[in-house]
Amino acid sequence: MNPLRSGIVFLFFACLVPLAAIAENHWPQWRGPSGDGICLEKEVPTEWDESDAAATNVIWKAPIPEFGRNTPVIWGDALFLTTHVDDRDLLLLRFDKRTGELLWTRKIGEGQTPRMEMRKKLGEERRHQKFHMTQNLASPSPVTDGEVVAAHFGNGDTAVFDFGGNRLWKRNFQEDYGPYTIWWGHANSPILVDGLLISVCMNDACRDLPGEPSESYVVAHDARTGREVWKTSRVSEAEAEFADGYTTPLLWNPDGRQEVIIMGGEILDAYDPATGERLWYLPRVVGNRPVTGPVTWGDRVYATQGKRGPFFAFRPKRQGEESHDSILWKHERGTPDSPCPVVTEGMVFWVNDDGIAYCLDALTGEEYWRTRLEKGPYRASPIVADGNVYFTGTRGLTTVIRADQELHVVAENMLDDELYASPIVSDGKLYLRGRKNLYCIGR
Q1: Are strands 347-351 and 102-110 parallel, antiparallel or unpaired?
Q2: Exposure on the CB side of residue 364, measured as CA atoms within 13 A
Q3: Would you state the CATH architecture of domain 3-441?
Q4: Which residues, at least 6 apart from 256, have a Cβ–Cβ distance to it below 8 Å?
Q5: Which of 35, 161, 281, 421 has its CA 20 to 30 A from that of 413?
Q6: Backbone phi and psi for residue 16, each to the nearest 5 degrees, phi listed first
């Protein structure tokens, strides 16, 4: 193996060591223990089928009230997800992950999903968020630290509960910080870092319209009390829809200094999770309203510029304004709009919304292979588990491909449901959230 690649691989896994202890039965946040779609478990199932009488490897199937696009989270035997029922009730649900039994339901608020046809917004329309037809107010994923679980919705309602279902606090971020002016529906998931619930909002500033501009910001609240600890304005020169971002913050800890990385509004930047201080930023990352979030590997950050724009690898100096000279390579063909990439063993994997999967060299950007998957389109982000990449399509198909430079399809597995949420893993079992049902897949 190339010495440089060996060093980066070592650094990558060294960064994951603190997470290994919680990787066996916890999936606490969007995209897993490290927030990047990497699962450290072994013997994860690769084949299942609910069409036969035995329902091969489908341990249980539980109905869920419709509907939500968020990914469930797990801590121990507790599985949480949120949903938006009848375009009214905003609910947090706790299931027993062993049996699929619904243990409790908590109503957090009410709200309707405002919609409009997909077109350019004009004038005062930009002051009001509208939602894409594929999502509603229950798009953000919940997050847990083993003691509390936080649920956030696209109308700004945010609440934290203990595992017994007792509400600790509730706030509404639109009431606190102003209306969401993101074009196609607020969907950013929060994260928990050292007892702080960290959330991001990337708005169209509407500076060219009469009245006060709309603020974009990063904010941290005490997860136990709801007290605001810090709030940092996230100023962007991007205009209209280009100022938007639907991504989730990513915690990065390459050398002992924790950083929260955010992509959107034509900026890639990092913040101190304890104070909210912006540590570094890469401006003029020109790309419209990114949905697919960043990932890290070794000392590199990987991101898509948005709306199927270039995918790039970047090595920040991690101090102040960064230079585009630190962008190591770009790939401009077939990039994803919605699904996030995943990086493992020196390889980048992604699937674009049209169902074409790619494998690239993480160091050079060289394309190893690409292949068309069946039964798209694709909105869920792939994960890597036990040397395989899991690609899940909206029509119920999950294609398992070996995480290798050579293309090898391991299995194709169909469920009778719509799958927008990304798969998660706990105790060697795979959990898939459909529109109508929650599935537990095991050997």
Answers
A1: unpaired
A2: 7
A3: 7 Propeller (2.130)
A4: none
A5: 35
A6: -90, -10
Q: Alpha-carbon distance 238 to 244, whole Å?
A: 8
Please tell me the distance from the alpha carbon of residue 173 to that of residue 198, in angstroms, as a whole number.
Answer: 12
Calculate the CA 7 to chain-centre distance: 28
- Residue 391: enclosing H or E segment and its boundaries? strand 388-392
The answer, yes or no, to whether the previous bond of 67 is cis (omega within 30 of 0) is yes
**Quick check: 19 pLDDT over 80?**
no
Q: Which residues, other chains included, contact 188 with Cβ-Cβ below 8 Å and sequence gap of 6+? A: 140, 199, 200, 201, 202, 245, 246, 247, 248, 249
Q: Give the pLDDT confidence of 126-151 residue by residue, as tens digits.
A: 999 999 888 999 999 999 999 999 99
d(CA 116, CA 130): 6
Give the tens place of pLDDT for each residue, 276-299. 999 999 999 998 899 999 999 999
pLDDT reported for residue 340: 97
Among 371, 358, 374, 378, smallest CA distance to 419 is for: 378
- In angstroms, the CA 74 to CA 143 distance is 9
Alpha helices in 128-233 (DSSP H): 173-177
Residues 338-375: b if buried by 16+ CB within 10 A, e if exposed: bbbbbbbebbbbbbbbebbbbbbbbbeeeeeebeebeb
Amino acid at 75: W
Measured between alpha carbons, how far is 38 from 139 in angstroms, rounded to an integer? 21
Quote the CA–CA distance of 155 and 175 in Å, as a whole number. 10
First to last CA, the chain: 34
Which residue carries 């912006």 as its tokens? 278
Tokens linked to 291: 């949905």
CB-based contact 68:136 (threshold 8 Å): yes
Question: Are 350 and 341 within 8 A, CB to CB?
Answer: yes
In whole angstroms, how far apart are CA 333 and each of 98, 146, 337? 42, 41, 12
DSSP state of 32: T
Q: Residue 172 CB: number of other CB atoms within 10 A?
A: 15
Give the separation between CA 303 and CA 334, rounded to whole angstroms: 14
